[in-house]
Each structure stands twice: as structure tokens, then as C-alpha cells.
Amino acid sequence: MAVYGYARVSTLIQAREGESLESQCRQVQSYAIANGFELPRDNIFIEAGVSGGIEFEKRPEGSRLSQVVQQGDLIIFPKLDRAF
Prior knowledge:
The protein is of the alpha/beta class. The chain is built from three helices and three strands. The chain has one domain.
């Protein structure tokens, strides 16, 4: 089983001033550690300035993640609304 993380903010302004992507990455990594999962930093996919209104598979990093994830793998989101 591979473990992946995904973080997203809707606008570049949010990336700089609001809900920090780095903060989301820390949340994802903390969850992985607390649950005994190994999560390499390279397995965290980050979208800066991509609306949640865009289908996951049509987002640049969402598309990349969709291509590598396999049945049985785990994707950790800091909050579910980052995926949808």
C-alpha cells in the first residue's frame, strides 16, 4: 500500500496569505505519522490556485495523483473539501 497526500488552495492569494499550503502539508504528515504510515514528501501533491469547482482529475496535480494511485493505496487530505 502506498500513501499519498493532497493539499489545495483555491487562489494564489490564499496560498500566500490565507490557508497555508505548508500548514495543510503538516496536517497530512501529522496524520500519517499518528497512524503509523510512511509518507515521503514527494508523495504529497500540492495545488496552488486551483478551484474546488474543477473536477479532481482535471486539476494538474489531481490528474497526476489519479494516474499513480492504485487500488488499496491511501490518500490523505487535510480536509475533505480540499478534494471536492
